[in-house]
Specification:
Strand 4, helix 4 and strand 5 form a beta-alpha-beta unit. The chain has a 7-stranded parallel beta sheet with strand order 3-2-1-4-5-6-7, sandwiched between helices. It contains 7 helices and 7 strands.
Length: 249
């Protein structure tokens, strides 16, 4: 590790990654494990293959089926993590849904509620359950995935609103606990080549996207930023949302 005056000693810390079975969540879980962390995969999808991949890296891992829109389920997730591993140091909130891509007037309150419950309440519940354990140890790192849709996306209004709320949550919590050693940040990845993105576009569009860098990212490129923000190397970044878009902004 670089000679950073305020860096905590590197330890075999424990991370929870919600939405860790696929996409950016999976890539983040594996990248964090590569740095010597034990990882809990929280997802409704099967996380067993990710657990096997983490164990192949020599780290301990656990899959806990979790509906992040259920507060009691999230509290149980955190309690099981601490009971199993004895600590919780890192939280990465990747669980999220896009919802239906339809014009605003075709969106129903039920559609809106489902997206908000998973994308916003899920992050809220997770931070509220996890942060007390980090404060107890005097060190913690939290990262939540947001999206440029927060600026307005007419066919996914609930999703855009949810990501705007996540941005606000990161800003608020990032200023709440840094003196106690707990940093909260976000990552805004643009479009990464995951199952949320690839099926929605033609092959031609995916191969020639309208971004200055000329391509969309791999989930592993986003995971590099997530890993840094959750590491001891992050000594001075809190309340920020890092752009990983291959472009300005």
């Amino acid at each position: 590790m670089p000679n950073l005056r305020f860096a905590a000693p590197k330890e075999q810390r424990v991370a929870i990654v919600t939405g860790g079975a696929n996409g950016i969540g999976r890539a983040s879980a594996l990248r964090i494990a590569e740095e010597g962390r034990d990882v809990v995969i929280a997802d409704m999808a099967d996380g067993a293959p990710v657990v096997e991949a983490i164990e192949a890296l020599g780290q301990r891992a656990l899959y806990i089926k979790t509906d992040v829109s259920d507060e009691s389920a999230v509290q149980s997730l955190v309690a099981q993590t601490v009971d199993t591993f004895g600590r919780l140091d890192i939280l990465v909130c990747c669980a999220g849904i896009l919802g239906k891509e339809v014009p605003f007037l075709e969106q129903t309150s039920e559609m809106f509620d489902r997206v908000i419950k998973i994308n916003v309440y899920g992050a809220f519940y997770a931070h509220q359950a996890a942060i007390p354990h980090m404060l107890e140890r005097g060190w913690g790192r939290c990262v939540t995935i947001t999206s440029g849709a927060r600026l307005g996306a007419t066919h996914v209004v609930p999703y855009g609103v949810s990501k705007g709320a996540v941005w606000s949550l990161v800003a608020a919590l990032g200023n709440a606990y840094p003196k106690e050693g707990v940093f909260v940040n976000g990552v805004e990845p643009g479009r990464a080549l995951t199952d949320m993105v690839v099926p929605r576009f033609s092959k031609e569009f995916i191969e020639n996207p309208p971004v200055p860098i000329g391509r969309y990212s791999d989930a592993e490129e986003v995971a590099e930023v997530v890993e840094f923000l959750t590491s001891e190397r992050n000594t001075y970044t809190t309340g920020s949302v890092w752009s990983v878009k291959g472009a300005t902004g």
